[in-house]
Amino acid sequence: MADQKISALEAEIRRLIGIAGPMPIAEYMRLCLTHPEHGYYMNRDPLGSGGDFVTAPEISQMFGEIIGLWLVAVWKELGAPENIRLVELGPGRGTMLIDALRAAKTVPGFHDAIVLHLIEISPALQKIQERRLEPLRLPTLWHTALEQVPAGPCLIVANEFIDALPIHQAVKQSDGWHERGVIVGADGALAIGAMREPLPHFEATLPRGLRQSPAGSIYEWRSDTAMLEIGRRVRENGAALIIDYGHAWYGLGETLQAVSGHSFADPLRAPGEVDLTAHVDFQALAQAAESIGGRIHGPVAQRDWLRRLGIDQRAAALKAHAPYGKGTEIDQALSRLTASGPRGMGELCKVMAIADPKLRALPGFETS
Ligand code: SAH
User: How far is the CA of 183 from the centre of ligand 1 (A)?
Assistant: First the structure.
């Protein structure tokens, strides 16, 4: 290892481990993704051509369009307020918003009512968003955290945002649960280890079904901060739509993963150069948002949600007007967005809404 060239971020991580001991996975993930200078998101476009991964809005315009229809329907449910903030968390290349706003344009009053607030930590992606959204000529403000958005009626959307927020991991040992952290292994490479002292009273904070798990079990969790803030914003005259890879019920197991060049990579190699994500525990999100007064809708599988909102009809309409040869592309995009099976995006991705409790039913969640 010693003769291998390491990045500036890896050198910094090793230095911090040298001073303070094992670095909690959450801290490692935070540095890898959002270190001001060397973080993965900070100076690149991971979604563009030659990027590392593809998200639903980048697969097809249909995804953003359906989101747009949902937004106007919910805006109407809220009584069509004349002023409402449309907030997107982690807008990437801005594609979802552009498609959503085009679809929503047909509804009188909606464009006039909104101010856009984009929560984006990456200066590189903010530049792309500015350039791509400029032609819409809508009032648009950028922030680095939801807390900076002024209070008031709001619609919040987030696709593949929560999975980029840091997770903690703990492993069960004979004397209790220990937080996992990044260490320098015996061979000199970064490795996963555990803190020496157990987390006090950790088992009592776990969902009931996970207490008394066998030794070696791994549990992941995220800070509730983001979800509490979303819940606080929407509980009066608001609604949020969260779409992400994740599970509807709590569980054990490790989901931290790295992706580079559209393939899985080792999360401990090339820190800051590869994307890191971990599945979203929708039950934990729901509990946090509910505890602060939001009403939860779903989660439902992305496939079912998109179908209930008419993605099949939208695909058929697009195909009817598509130039020769484009029909197959539309079919392929539709199957990708709605793919079943444990690895299919339509099943692995879930959709959940959190809203003002006065909204009893929301589009796409009716039968759940
Ligand atoms: N929603 C987009 C992009 C998903 S990638 C899409 O579906 O295509 C994750 C996005 O969240 C990027 O825009 C990234 O820069 C942003 N992001 C990641 N962590 C963030 C944080 N802590 N605060 C604000 N934005 C963040």
Answer: 27
